[in-house]
Write a structure and sequence with these properties.
Keywords: Membrane, Transmembrane, Transmembrane helix. There is one protein chain. The protein has 434 residues and is mainly beta. It has a single domain, classed as 7 Propeller (Methylamine Dehydrogenase, Chain H), CATH 2.130.10. The protein contains 3 helices and 31 strands. The strands form 7 sheets. A 6-stranded mixed β-sheet has the order 1-2-25-24-23-22, with no helix packed on it. The chain is globular and about 55 Å long. The N terminus is likely disordered.
């Protein structure tokens, strides 16, 4: 009787695990192990980010719902498969062969030249598989997306409707003779969006290092204002809007020599330098930033989390062994990765941590030594989608899929079809999460 009850409860929990209101839909896909291809390690690095929050995070207790009766088989040494809930601080092993099929990813992603905006909603990227996807953010009745031709490198800002149809090209080389930043900043409270536009060099058809403008728009995409950024001839057109504060938008700017500074572009049309080093992210509330600088042991250039007082939180700068990436929409969870392959910009993800303390909430790992977990994006405050690469060894097939991690339940499921892919033929891995 007890076993029957346990099995019934387990089935019920699996049926209802995940976010409220998220239906469990079957994927129109098959798992493939058809062709054997060479596996490669592709370091996915870059700038970009979402941010951190300064908050006292409520204790999450056990990820399986707080029951002290749940435990992990001691033989697993703190690890668990996707079907076994893990306790706080445990490791969830993401094995593509063992994961059940779940609903399609609600986090936008690109695959094979197609942008998947929502389950059943797609848009063919201009330039196909050779296009570079910068950012995708929701607006009223649709999305804004930045896309560049990989050969030109000049981004265009597109507006799409709720069905994935192109509404307009907002700004780009063929629209207004300008290009836009790859990044889009979003104000979680109001839905406002910000991007940076640059003049193009008419002779080279490339971004000019001068005449950069921060543009803000409302939730419906309607332009609200423009702020000229104080660039000069030493600054390259690589400004990235990071996030909103109560006074304006923080923008990171990199010059032609690789030196960074951080600007605050105010809603009053002013702009000022607020830090003489790189800022990588801003909290949803705008009061905490993540910056790179000489903040680690021995003044190493590590990524640190800085509070309103300008001081780094000690846990974030005690070592230089980790990097930090995207944060949950409410700022209470943070992605962590290795410093040698920064999780920011689609790098490797090895854990979800508590941003107030740095404690591991759940660690993520592949099933084998050559497997990788990378490019995390949040569907909700507790639902994370990551890309997983599975390789039996260095000479046998690499298979890829998106995996949904329910951080609250400590479980995982497939969020896409499994595909065979050889990144050596294209230079990049198949899934780009946004």
């Amino acid at each position: 009787m007890t076993n029957d009850l346990d099995e019934a409860l387990t089935r019920t929990l699996r049926e209802h695990a995940g976010d409220a209101g998220t239906p469990r839909l079957d994927l129109d896909a098959v798992r493939g192990r058809a062709r054997r291809i060479r596996r490669t390690r592709t370091a996915l690095v870059g700038a970009g980010a979402a941010a951190v929050v300064l908050a006292v995070v409520a204790p999450l207790g056990l990820l399986g719902g707080g029951s002290s009766d749940r435990s992990v088989d001691p033989a697993t040494s703190g690890t668990a498969s996707a079907d076994i809930p893990v306790e706080r601080g445990g490791t969830l092993t993401l094995d593509l062969d063992d994961l059940a099929e779940g609903s399609s990813s609600r986090a936008p992603y690109a695959l094979g030249g197609v942008l998947h905006l929502a389950p059943g909603v797609t848009w063919d990227l201009p330039g196909g598989s050779g296009a570079q996807l910068g950012a995708v953010v929701p607006v009223s009745d649709g999305w804004l997306a930045t896309v560049a031709d990989v050969e030109v490198g000049a981004f265009t800002l597109y507006r799409l409707d709720s069905q994935g149809s192109l509404v307009e090209e907002v700004s780009g080389p063929s629209v207004d003779g300008r290009t836009v930043s790859d990044a889009l900043a979003v104000d979680a409270a109001t839905g406002r969006v910000a991007w940076v536009e640059y003049d193009l060099d008419p002779l080279a058809d490339l971004p000019s290092p001068v005449a950069a403008t921060l543009v803000t728009a409302g939730r419906d995409g309607t332009e609200l204002g423009r702020t000229d950024l104080p660039v000069n001839d030493t600054f390259a057109p690589s400004s990235r809007p990071l996030g909103f504060t109560s006074a304006g938008v923080l923008v990171n700017m990199t010059d032609s020599m690789g030196e960074d500074r951080t600007l605050l572009a105010g809603f009053d049309g002013t702009a000022e330098t607020v830090a003489d080093r790189a800022t990588e992210g801003v909290s949803p509330g705008g009061d905490v930033v993540r910056r790179t600088g000489a903040v680690g042991q021995g003044d190493e250039a590590c990524s640190g989390v800085f509070g309103p007082d300008g001081k780094a939180l000690a846990w974030s700068t005690s070592t230089c062994t980790a990097s930090y990436g995207r944060y949950s929409p409410d700022g209470q969870l943070l992605l962590r990765g290795p410093v040698e392959e920064p999780v920011v910009g689609d790098g490797q993800v090895d854990a979800v941590i508590d941003p107030a303390t740095g404690d591991v909430v759940v660690a993520l790992a592949g099933a084998g030594p050559d497997d990788r977990v990378y490019a995390g994006a949040w569907e909700s405050a507790t639902s994370l989608v990551v890309a997983v690469q599975k390789s039996d060894d260095l000479e046998t097939p690499a298979r890829y899929a998106l995996v949904r991690v329910d951080v609250a339940a400590g479980r995982a499921e497939l969020a896409s079809a499994i595909v065979d892919y050889d990144p050596q033929q294209t230079g990049y891995t198949p899934f780009t999460l946004r």
